[in-house]
Design goal:
With 394 residues, the chain is mainly α. It has 16 helices and ten strands. It has one domain: Cytochrome P450 (Cytochrome p450, Orthogonal Bundle), CATH 1.10.630.10. Belongs to the cytochrome P450 family.
Length: 394
């Protein structure tokens, strides 16, 4: 069914997402309309800023620690140094996704014709609108300054990318806020869940560290090196298989009455989604409910070149819809996969991690959403010295 739905133009992802999941006509939700070496040094600086350098074991709130870390790294890559260092932007970018998702859920409890009125009376909606307004106060002056500069000045960031490629009017600040809303928290969740799984299976930490050291020594710090870290890629993909952010994917709304090939009838205006149960199907994945960090590593070792491309973390298929599937699969999955790998490499080589005795991390579920338990704490300590392998990266 997924293959049929992904290419049926009568079933709209945009309609389902914009009108129902996020209320784009309501102030505060405007962003949902818009719908190498420096990385290593950046990760080092950011991680040191958010993790203590103590050599003693201590607890940290996992999700709350990884959120500003990923937000700052993503901002540096997408928006440049100025906003990366701007604490106000980091605050907005870190909180907008949670605020908008929470408010959207609360508004869905009301009949559609009352939602706009409710939004005008809701303190949470006031906060959402303030976040959008504050983002404009930060982004708009940067764009105005750039547009007034003489031609020839080159900027390599997402502000410039949108300026060059936009073929119609768009809102730069809303666009950037949308990027943060759909990317940062999902990346944080994958990083946090994967670190939990790796710590729950400490026997894989040594092989992961060995792979990282070997590949960096052979390739240095580049995209090819990240591609060759196949065990790390496998461990991350296995975590996403068992704990996807969404257990139902490919949400669509029927623009007209639709009858699928198997006879399923979808009335106009009704919504549907495809279950991700295939990711726990014993016929596809033996011992499907068990985390096996080597699962996709073994597959890649046995696969030909064409098949290997479909087994990587950033790949999508009917069997693994962690990043969605079809035309609206996550377009930022390649960036997210690289970002999580880079951060995980640094965390594994320079820190020791463990699950506190007597605790077991479990994701928190709400409807079709699974996310890291925001209250879970993990134990960490800094190693005595920086791993020599990473010196090659700076």
């Amino acid at each position: 069914m997924a293959d049929e739905i992904k290419k049926d133009s009568r079933l709209s992802f945009i309609k389902a997402s914009n009108d129902s999941a996020f209320h784009i006509s309501i102030p505060g939700f405007e962003p949902y309309r818009e719908g190498g070496k420096h990385e290593a040094a950046l990760v080092k600086n950011v991680v040191h800023g958010h993790l203590k350098k103590t050599l003693k074991w201590h607890k940290i709130p996992l999700n709350a620690t990884m959120l500003p870390l990923i937000t700052r790294i993503s901002t540096r890559v997408l928006l440049g140094e100025d906003l990366c260092r701007n604490e106000e932007w980091i605050r907005i970018a870190s909180s907008y996704s949670v605020t908008s998702t929470t408010v959207a859920g609360r508004l869905r409890r009301w009949p559609q014709h009352l939602r706009y009125i409710v939004s005008l009376l809701s303190p949470q909606c006031w906060e959402l609108r303030k976040q959008v307004s504050d983002s404009h106060a930060l982004i708009d002056p940067i764009l105005e300054r750039r547009r007034s500069e003489e031609k020839g000045t080159v900027y390599n960031d997402s502000l410039e990318w949108f300026e060059k490629t936009a073929k119609a009017a768009y809102d730069p600040a809303d666009t950037q806020l949308f990027l943060t809303a759909v990317s940062i928290h999902t990346t944080v969740d994958l990083l946090s869940q994967a670190l939990e799984d790796i710590c729950a299976h400490p026997e894989i930490i040594g092989p992961l560290q060995d792979e990282i050291r070997t590949v960096i020594k052979e390739e240095g710090w580049n995209t090819k090196a990240l591609y060759k870290m196949k065990l790390l890629d496998s461990a991350l993909k296995e975590t996403q298989r068992l704990k996807p952010v969404q257990i139902a994917s490919m949400m669509r709304e029927a623009l007209v009455d639709v009858t699928l090939q198997d006879g399923t009838f979808i009335p106009k205006g009704h919504q549907l989604a495809v279950s991700c149960h295939n990711m726990r199907d014993e016929k596809i994945y033996p011992n499907a409910n068990e985390w096996d960090g080597y699962r996709f590593y073994r597959e890649r070792q046995e696969a030909d070149a064409a098949r290997e491309d479909k087994i990587q973390l950033s790949s999508t298929s009917v069997e693994h819809m962690g990043f969605g599937y079809g035309e609206h699969a996550c377009p930022g999955r390649f960036f997210a996969a690289k970002e999580v790998k880079i951060v995980m490499m640094y965390l594994l080589l320079n820190y020791e991690w463990r699950i506190p005795e007597g605790t077991k991390p479990n994701p928190v579920s709400c409807c079709t959403i699974w996310v890291t338990d925001p209250t879970f704490e993990i134990e960490v300590r800094k190693k005595g010295s920086e791993d020599p392998a990473l010196e090659l990266a700076y």
